[in-house]
Amino acid sequence: MKSVTQSKFHYLSGKFKSVRPQILYGYIFATPSLAIAIILILYPLLFGLFVSFHQWNWSKGQADNMVFIGLENYIRMVGDPYFWNALKNTLYFTLLALVAELLLGLVCALLLHRITRGSLILRTALIFPLIISDIVAAVMWKMLLDPSMGHINYYLSVLGLPAPNWLTDPKLVIPAVALVETWWNTGVVTLILLAGLQSLPTEPEEMAQVDGASGWQVFLHITLPGLQPFVLTAVIFRTIDLLRVFAIVWGTTGGGPVRASQVMQHYLYLQGIGSYLNIGYATSLSVTFAIFIGIIVLIYIRFIPKVEVE
Amino acid sequence: MNRKRIGKLATYIALLVLALLFTCPVLWIIGTSLKRPVDAASLPPIWIFKPQWSNYIEAWNNRGFARAFLNTVFIGLGTVIVSIVAGVPLGYSLGRSPIRGKQVIGVSILVLRLLPEMIFLLPLYAIYRRTGLFDSWTGMILAFQILTLPFAVWLLRGFILQVPAEIEDAGRVDGCSEWQLIWQIILPLIVPGIVASAMFTFITVWGALLFPLALGYSRAETISVAIANFRGFANFQWPLMAAGSVIATIPQILFFGFIQRYLVAGLTMGSVKA
Q1: Test the A interface: residue of B122, B174, B263 with most A CBs within 10 Å
Q2: How far is the alpha carbon of B74 from chain A, nearest alpha carbon, in Å?
Q3: Structure pTM?
Q4: What are the 10-residue block averages of pLDDT along chain B, 274 residues in total?
Q5: How many separate domains does chain A show?
Q6: Distance CA B57, CA A23 (A)
Q7: Does one domain contain both A42 and A115?
Q8: DSSP A68
Q9: Do B271 and A308 touch (CB under 8 A)?
Q10: Same domain for A88 and A23
Q11: Nearest residue in A to B176, CA atom
Q12: Distance (Å) from the C-alpha of residue B208 to the closest C-alpha of chain A?
């Protein structure tokens, strides 16, 4: 109690005395983080951008001489079939997993919101896959989807359903990894939408029910519009993470069969580090891909109203 | 009344089915980690078996696994120390700053998050190769700051905002310096935030694959890379792979109870809502 009165007194009398050192200390406190941000985030980004305008292929002995070639790397990628293949695979994977995660996550959130008893344990079970790292999930599902010993195909055949070669059929491989991704990350959508449902006021729903609206009508006209900002938050963050996918796909398929599931970050890795060491070209691809993701996010923010990302 | 009951029952049944779908693969891998190779391979699956704890010892002794585990522990701890030591002061000045840079931080964190990892890893690979930081603990700890520091700052700032400014004013009146304020008054109050940030940071390092794959080789090989190497194993080594995978999930299991509360904040980092 004493301190509170003192603080008011202090605030009135010592305003000018106290503000200045606070600002100074604000900058001092920011220094270590800003130093790290400049050296490890800003500098590599600028250096990468610089490199992307150069021929710098270490596998051809160019480690010590970078040659400026202007936009040549960027022009080269237009005619690079593997770049377009990786982009196509990434987009297909993102679209499938995004839709599946949103729908399944919405169902999970709505169901969890209806119950009170046992909600903690059920919620924990529904988001449980989130605790596993992506590479562990990938290795695990590589075993489960194994065509000869895998349990998924065994149970499918028990039920009399076809047991396809999930990870080696070029037509099936992306849907299969999107399925693994959906299993792994639906919990993210569930948590965001559940937080949304819990923040909505209950009166409008109750009033509509009193007025005789059916459960479906209440959901469509009251719950869903209220949930919209949360759905958009989920869409943006899931899209960003899905486009950047690596471990889930690489871990299950290695990009195969014959590049049928090679995603963009995998191609960037191979081009720059994993096999070709063509760092100049790879950085130009990474810059292009980053701009591509940025444009998608901007489109979301621009054209969809009421986005909460300020 | 009766209809309401049926609805409630249907909800629980649906939730139980979903819970099974999400947990079964995990239960399967725990089961497989305790089977003999013959039993793991048998279809229809064997449900009753004598647990083979030796699989865990075998996985641990598998070439490079133990070293990768310990590497990750040390790299993880190093990353936590740097992120917290650098993150607390910045989180503090952002939380208390008279300049409201909230939106700027939110947007820059979002931009940082949408950048593909490779845009950092390609230039860092070139730099590391030439400076000797490649495949070193120091190099990994520094590189991981790209992922962990922004999140630590964001989370800590949230905790500092909850500390009432009056407490600080009182401290100032009593003659505390700014350093004393942050050490003796603020720090004890944000311990839960520091613990949560530390756990998130550690788990980020623990689960990351692309970073150690690009910037490490053997001395800085982490647990995720060791798990990835399992992919080349033959079918009869499944119990070993399963045991290794379970070992590789220990930190998440230990920390999950505590960080579950902050998951939403973490998942939507950068969207300025709170």
Answers
A1: B122
A2: 18
A3: 0.90
A4: 83 95 94 88 82 91 91 96 93 74 73 93 94 94 94 87 84 82 85 92 94 92 92 84 94 86 71 44
A5: 2
A6: 56
A7: no
A8: E
A9: yes
A10: no
A11: A18
A12: 8
